[in-house]
Amino acid sequence: MSPRSPHLKHKNYNMGSCQTKEKSSCRASERVVKELKSKAEWRRERKRLKDELRRLGRVVEEKEELLRCMEGCCVLEEQARRDETLEKWKQLYFAIKVELDDLIRKMHQEERLICWKTDEEEMLIELNKELQTKEERIELLQAKLASMEDQELKREREVDILRQSLRIMSHKKRATKPGKRSIQEF
Question: For the whole model, what pTM was predicted?
Fold first, then answer.
């Protein structure tokens, strides 16, 4: 047989196809191994993420509990301020009522003792003066109330700033490892 005979070509072709089959089965087994490795990595990553999620959930619950406690304190303080303001308004109301009752009583007494026309003019002048005095006092009290409301807003802002600072501080504590101190702490 000559090297160019059809039987040799067929034999060489069969050898080449066997090598190709071996290579493709080798590649297929490599792909299966890679898939198994990636599945194992995926499972480990999934387990790690679940653990991290549980840990973060506990941290969030702790922070929410702390915020509820702080809000409870703030509500009590705000209720006390409201009660105090209400009490001041009641005192102001009763003081004005007493003064008006006194004015009415004086007016009736003066009407009996003095002539109508002259007394009316004098009384009107006095009442106008007292009315102006009362209006000035009311304006003063309103300004004082506005000042108190401004102070209350400032306190609320301070509480918000403190809450944010607490969140930042707790975030920094989580960021540093327990056994090591950061340079910023020194």
Answer: 0.29
